[in-house]
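Technical note accompanying the year-one report. For the benefit of new consortium partners, we illustrate the data format agreed upon in the data management plan: each record pairs a sequence with a structure-token string. No post-processing was applied to the example shown here.
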Amino acid sequence: MGYKTSLCIANLKAILAAAGSDISRVVKTTVFLTDMKNFAEVNGEYEKHFGVNGAPKPARSCVAVHQLPKGVEVEIECVALPGGGGAGHSEEEIERKVTG
């Protein structure tokens, strides 16, 4: 589950960079799990990426769902502020859902 979570976060980082932002600009995440027994492992990987190097931790919700598209077990959605890195030049908040 840690690997699947790291893939979700890697996808988020790529999308944020393409939009001209980065993970330090994320203000809210929602984590969807098909089984809450996986929370500790998902959380362990999550904490390696959010709220590090002095960046504030984003607000977070974690919800259990019956199932996710394509049979995945974890999905992470985020809302981020523009700026802070990447190649894009967005002036609006970025909201992306990434499935891993």
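Partners are asked to follow this layout when depositing records. The CA atoms of residues 9 and 49 lie 8 Å apart.
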